[in-house]
Amino acid sequence: MKDIRNFSIIAHIDHGKSTLADRLIMKTGGCDTRNYKDQMLDNMDIERERGITIKSQAITLPYKAKDGKTYSLNLIDTPGHVDFSYEVSRSLASCEGVLLLIDAAQGVQAQTLANLYLAMEHNLEVIPVINKIDLPSADIERVIEQIDSELGLDPDTHLRCSAKEGTGIEDILEAVVERIPPPTGDPDARLAALIFDAHYDAYRGTVINCRVFDGTVKAGDSIRFMFNGSVYRVEEVGHFGLSRQKRDELSAGEVGYVIAGVKTVSSVSIGDTITNNDRPVDNPLPGFKEAKPVVFASIYPIASDDYEDLAEAMEKYKLNDAAFIYEKDSSVALGQGFRCGFLGLLHLDIVQERLEREYDLNIILSVPSVRYRFTLKGGEVIYVDNPAHYPGPMAIDKGEEPYIRASMMMPDRYLGAVMTLCIEKRGVNSNMHYPGPGRVELTYEMPLSEVIFDFYDRFKSVTQGYGSFDYELIDYRESNLVLLDILVNGEKVDALSQIVHRDRARARGVQACDRLREEIPRQMYKIAIQGAIGGEIISRSTISPFRKDVTAKCYGGDITRKRKLLEKQKEGKKRMKMVGSVSIPQSAFLAVLKSDTNS
Amino acid sequence: MTGKPPASPGLYIHIPFCLTRCGYCDFFSCTDTGSMGDFLQALFQEMALWHDEFPPFDTVYIGGGTPSLLCPGDMGRLLDRAREVFGILPGAEITVEANPADWGRNELRELRSLGVTRINLGVQSFDDRELEFLGRRHDSAQALAALSSARSAGFDSVGLDLIYGLPGQGFASWRASLEQALAFGPEHLSCYELELKGDTPLGLKFGKGEIEGRSEEDLREFFLKTSELAEGAGYLHYEVSNYAREPGTTSRHNRKYWDHTPYLGLGPSAHSFRGARRWWNHGSIEGYLGSLRAGEKPVRGSEDLSAAQLAFEALFLGLRMKEGIDLEEYRLRYGVDLLWEKGPQIRDREEAGLVRVISGRLCPTREGMAVADALAVL
């Protein structure tokens, strides 16, 4: 156990986490340069393209240190987006230390702090690493100052590297060995292993990533998941290299995988404890939370004939994404579909993209919503995440909506603009402090619905990209909630409805009409778009028809070119959903949530 | 204009030479007229390669480029050769396009005697500043002279082309040109919208922001007012861009492109159609001559249209014509019952005043013609 080090790299988005991970892998010979693909650990196309990690990954790196001994360094990669902070916390719970990576040019950001706090909650050894020292805009002195004043860490403990150029990597590996404590635990005690990730393998079913704290697990053991009580027989255990490496057993202190004939990823809960069914521990490891979706939207096929294909795709997709939930749903305007829950808007985006890309489907998403809580006149309490199920003003005694605590960090010159934005977003109970000269950390309590509604884009824009943002859910608070309907040519499009705060209803209605006017292409007739509450029209806009779209010449016998042009238009039309006689493009449903970015 | 389409095919001959390139033109042309003699020989050779493959033609259209760069003698040789190789039916419509600057009354008289029945003059505008902007090498006086020469040379079918929607063009200015044209009383009138497309000289200027395009609203105004004015003067707006003084003076040749009647196109970049196949010649003179030197037809590409593609073409082409689509004939020929398959969409468009279903025909209204492309993408 003395030769094992379990650690993570934590950082604000884009501070170079994946690049550093790649360097560590190359340096320890986990992969030769010939096979080197950028960002080895991010192995989904989408992760690679967006440059963010969505799923946790783990890899065991054999490292021969300067003291002549060979260590097993278990690097546990963490997702890099606020939507996935629970997954981050479970990964950290599996470690004894972290590399806290800070961009030499950007310095400490909101997620740097949030991640540091998470690491501290788990009593982890924190090694600050300044990355991107090769950048011309690098300001290492300033970052060292921030490590002291803003992070409260000993500035003398910092390391410097350029993951891109491969400098400083050796020092990092040495520090991992010297400064991060080896795991403790008793291999002979009763089994307690923390599940920090799971993914689906078409041949083996669910592959569970776990950290063993006490005890030992091996093939043939009968194991139990303590949260849901299900029991499985272990088929195989092992470590992660660049591929799975089978081992006889995993014992206290080790990080590895367990395959136990679990059919779907959703049968496994991240953060759950694995114990031995014949000799179970009394209590699970602390910190377990059920992953709860906070953003909801319906997914419909554009062509209703594709419903069966969509159903199949959702089932397959769900195998590998436990956080994604769905159930059957139907819309008057859009037909048969599914109501889905997501961890956040990014998660929603990813699911949409993967369904389209990997299953070749054209889908439409309804306007995303949070989960509201209504106390009805009779005293019954219901949760509503689909505006179609809004109970109606006469039936409601009390409406409540989820609140978050947003923490934002920015240069102080943007403070005024950010506060104005937060107040506009119904933010309350603000708090601020100055972790260092010229920088301010601001917290606000805000309705989650305001945050999914276009907050992040506007925040980035008012801080000119210098602000960083993180949030956590706190509680439900009373709110005056009404249903905003959107009518297209007099016909209600239920997939465009939103539950909104009464004071914001008019502004939202105006915004929705304006955005739809931009998103819905002109058609042959005038299209009227209206926002309505109850029967009352509160906003409207119109899309003028095309005036003239016909090309002058169809001449000289070259009909082919003309036909190809029109065929392209026909193809484009297939990407739109017919609602009554109006074609509404996919983009319109999400655009309703966005304000005019020019304003 | 009713009943079955004529069965005889049409012959198109492309004369790819121009003295200058007009600002709006994207038809294939070459400003080097030195090789004209060789080119005629090549055309004769191309005809020989198609010998026996088409029955006699009842329409011939010599377009370009600028066919009026040929002297009437050459034009005569070209027509004689076509008569020899394929046959041209008695009473055939034989059209030649001409630039108003080129042929005088004597040449036009000679053409008439060679059997040319229609002359189509590229007038474009009666405003000299507009003509200059368009890059035309004639002025309005030459246009008027050419029109009256054509008449006095004995042409009882004269067509002229106009272009509207120039940057900054006021409606009054357009109206003046249009009225001048109508006052002459041509048998046929084509009114085209100026298109600022990428690869034309004006298109490039537009791309660089040197000239400004017209709004759709403006273009619609031009289009609808043109239709009102011309129809007010007794003309028949029989196709999106085309007007006939009488039902019998429509272009019989162009109609073949629109109703899947076979046609053979000769010369660089010319398109041909027969059965369900369309093919097209090399666009460059070099490619065209190269194939012929090798003794091959200068065909660069072809496509075989599926039943669905044929049906779609017939739909969008039919909806460009005032007489529209004979639904029963369409069903028999293309196997699609439009009212059955697109009933709700057709009814929507009918309610919007864009189409009408009258005595078994689906016809665009004037407003419908303005958006004929969208009409076809049902």
- Structural class determined from secondary elements of chain B: alpha/beta
CATH top level assignment of the largest domain in chain A:
Alpha Beta
State the end-to-end CA separation of chain B: 25 Å
Domain unit count of chain A: 5
The residue ranges of chain B in which pLDDT falls below 50 over 5 or more consecutive positions are none
Description:
The complex is a heterodimer of chains A (599) and B (378). Chain A has 599 residues and is of the alpha+beta class. Chain A has 5 domains: 4-179, Rossmann fold (3-Layer(aba) Sandwich), CATH 3.40.50.300; 192-276, Translation factors (Elongation Factor Tu (Ef-tu), domain 3), CATH 2.40.30; 295-365, Elongation Factor G (Translational Gtpase), domain 3 (Alpha-Beta Plaits), CATH 3.30.70; 372-479, Alpha-Beta Plaits (2-Layer Sandwich), CATH 3.30.70; 483-593, Elongation factor 4, C-terminal domain (Alpha-Beta Plaits), CATH 3.30.70. In chain A, strand 7 and strand 8 (205-214) form a beta hairpin. The model of chain A is unreliable at 31-42 and 50-56 (pLDDT under 50). With 378 residues, chain B is α/β, with parallel strands linked by helices. Chain B has 2 domains: 10-258, Aldolase class I (TIM Barrel); 310-375, Arc Repressor Mutant, subunit A (Orthogonal Bundle), CATH 1.10.10. Chain B has a 9-stranded mixed beta sheet with strand order 7-8-6-5-4-3-2-1-9, sandwiched between helices. A 3-stranded antiparallel beta sheet of chain B has the order 10-11-12, with no helix packed on it. In chain B, helix 2 (72-85) packs parallel to helix 3 (105-113), helix 3 (105-113) crosses helix 5 (140-152) and helix 6 runs parallel beside helix 8 (216-232). The mean pLDDT of chain B is 92. At the A-B interface, helix 13 of A face helix 8, helix 9, strand 10, helix 11 and helix 14 of B.
